[in-house]
Automatic annotation (TrEMBL):
Gene Ontology terms for molecular function: monooxygenase activity
Record-linked InterPro entries: MOase_MmoB_DmpM, mOase_MmoB_DmpM_sf
Native organism taxonomy: Bacteria, Pseudomonadati, Pseudomonadota, Betaproteobacteria, Burkholderiales
Family: Belongs to the TmoD/XamoD family.
Originating organism: Massilia litorea
Protein name (Swiss-Prot/TrEMBL): MmoB/DmpM family protein
Residues in coiled coil: none
Pfam families given in the database record: MmoB_DmpM
């Protein structure tokens, strides 16, 4: 696996607050950059977004497709299931 940076950039709003917190929880190696209207999260090699972590934070079912509502940009190859989205370079 490459240690090249992957990233995801999300709008800063109420809908993405829990997603960002979940990403921070599941990826302690990641660096979070907060801007007025955007949060960019960089990680060397791999970044995971786990549905279960988000659901624990928001207290309801959450569909991985909801991520698209606040997504600005990303870098890395995507592996996505109903439970997890992984960014990594292959």
């Amino acid at each position: 696996m490459s240690d090249q940076l992957v990233f995801i950039a999300l709008q800063t709003n109420e809908d993405t607050r829990a997603v960002i917190e979940a990403i921070e929880t599941d990826n302690p190696h990641a660096t979070v950059h907060r801007f007025p209207a955007m949060v960019k999260i960089d990680a060397p090699g791999r970044l995971e977004i786990n549905r279960a972590t988000i659901e624990d934070l928001i207290g309801r079912n959450w569909d991985m497709q909801e991520l698209q509502l606040g997504l600005i940009s990303l870098a890395g190859n995507i592996d996505e299931t109903e439970d997890q989205l992984v960014l990594a370079w292959r």
